[in-house]
Every structure is written in structure tokens, then in C-alpha cells.
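Let's practice the habit of predicting before peeking. Look at the sequence and jot down your guess about where helices and strands might fall. Then scroll down.
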Amino acid sequence: METIVRFLKPTTSSFFLFGPRGTGKSFWLKSQFTKALWLDLLDPSTFRSLAARPERLRELIAGNPDKTEIVIDEVQKAPELLPLVHKLIEEDKRLRFALTGSSARKLKRTGVDLLAGRAIIRALHPFMAAELGDRFDLSRALEYGMLPLVMAASSPRETLDSYSSLYVREEVQWEGLVRNVGAFARFLEAMSFSHAAVLNLSNVARECQVERKTAEGYVEILEDLMLGFRVRVFSKKAKRELAVHSKFYYFDAGLFRSLRPTGPFDRPQEIAGAALEGLVAQHLRAWMAYRKNQEQLFYWRTRSGVEVDFVVYGPTGLWAVEVKHSDQVRAEDLRGLQAFATDYPEARCLLLYRGGERLKRSQTLCLPCEQFLRELHPDREIPGWA
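Done guessing? Here is the structure:
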């Protein structure tokens, strides 16, 4: 697969680069740090030598005085290195560290705060449509997702099917994150029914035959491994009674499709609709992460069930976004946006659908979803309202 320029921009100081496996962190770093001292903790010998004696990091840097840029790949494997990294940054202002991680769990417990703000935190997400340009195919994205690892594979379906197993084996089992690996594997599948839906942990726990507290811990593991995320209810200056539970999304539409079982009682339209909403969610998260303008992602839902899929709130404005897997715009599709606009008249309302026409219905701009995704760019505001 040819090189695709990512929207993530390098920093001038030391930084953490987080992101799930397969998002291209190592590839991106190799394109940015061509002369760096590279330490890959997935390499068994490198891991053993540094984990057993972290001070060897100082010796390696001293032995390579021309290397002022140091990459430590998958640093969560040896969080005991972080206090030494902190000290080295303090001692030598020339040094610039890039620390990658596909799991924040160990770092949260044992090290990130030790850097005391000396390292910026960045995240790399799956591809955005605007990064791919003409190579973006919406139907393929809904089926296989936007992970560089999968898009570059000769057999994307097989790669996706093995992706969650890789995490269960290498992150969950080997790191001892859960006592019952089988229960966690069932949980991954059960959570696929909560993708793009309000999260009911009691139902998930019942489905997995575990305690509710255990299910809550599993969700936190998913978030720490960056495989999923929750979206909270937008409640600023609320004028109605609102829902209290968050919505859940897997971080990539392809991962959702690979985990979601299908059978004679499953409607393809329902699964495709959840995949489309998740694809928009992951694009909005990437857009916000690369902009660094402090926008936040919410959803809006009243106690009576009136809902807007996404609310983007930040210094540049307030947007309400509804996603429909339909090639027509129906009056009922606009009901949630109209209710939100009544409460928040300053909001810019957008409906994304599978049709091909750009329409204006009352206060709502209706855009083809593919056009929206192609035009969503970190250097610009939400498409359609710029």
C-alpha cells in the first residue's frame, strides 16, 4: 500500500503517541524520525534488557551522542522506564522522546503522571476519508473499517477476525487484565450489540453471565486498550429531563462488524446503520484530536426518547449531527434535530444520509454522508457550515 500522509502533526517536544494497534503509529514515527535511536519493546531481547535494568536506557543514549531523538515503541510494556525518561528530559534539554502505546492501563497506574507535563499526549486514529482522498470507498469502509493494518492486508476479513483475538491473547491474557479470559471474549461480542446505542451495563452483564461491577471493569479495559469509547449526554443549560447513560462505540467500524454476530433474526439494515453511525463517530473523534481546539463530542437524548446522535461543542461553535442509513430524508428523521434547535437556537443542525443530494429542510442542512466524510478535515470546521 502506497504511503498516505496522515493529518497528525509532530510536536517539537517529547510526546506520548497513543492509539490502538494497527493505526500506523510505528510507520508514522519512522517517517518523522528517520535518524532516531529506536527501541521496540515488542522485540523480546530489547524488552528483557530494558525491563530488567532500566538504567541501560541512559547507557544507550550516552553511547549514541548523535541521537537526540529517541523512540520507545509500546512503552506500556515497561512503564518502569518512565521515571528515567523524566529525569533524562530534565538533564538534557536536547533530548526529544517519542513514546508510543496501545494501552494506557499500566501507564495510568505506574507512570504517565511521573513526566509531570514534560511530554505532550497525542493520539493516532484510523484513517480519515480526507486522508485517503480518491482511495476512500464508503461501502468498503462500512464493511472493513479504516484501520491501516486492515486496508493494507491482502485478506482484510481474515485480518479483522484475528484482530480482537490478538488483543485478547497479547494484552488481556498475557498482562493478566482479567481472571476469566473466556468471559471477556464473550463480553467483546456482547458489547457489539451496544455499539452506537445507549449502554445498559446490567443487560450486558446478564448476557455475559458476570456481575455488573465486572462488566463495568471490562468496559474500562476496552477504553484503556483504546478499543472502544463512551460518549456522554450533552447537558449544558438543559431545558428538559435528559438520559443519564452514555452511548458506546467500538473505535472502528470494521472491528464492530467483525465482532457482531449475525443470524436469521438480525436485520442487515440495522447493522449497517450502526456501522455508519460508528464510522461518523470515529471520524469526528479523529477530527477533534488532530485539531486540538478543545471540541468535545456528546450525544443528546431526552427521557422521552428524542435523540440527536452527536453534539459537537467547543470554542468554534455548537453542532448537532444526525446520521441516517437511508437514501431519503423523511420528516421523522428531523424530529430530534428540531427539538434540539428549539432548546439551542444557536446550534447548526446537520443530517447525514446515504442519498446523493444536498438539501435544506427548515433549519437543517442535509448532506450525503460520503461527502461529509470526504470533506471533514482538521484544518476546517464541520463541512456544510464553514
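How did you do? The chain has a mean pLDDT of 91.
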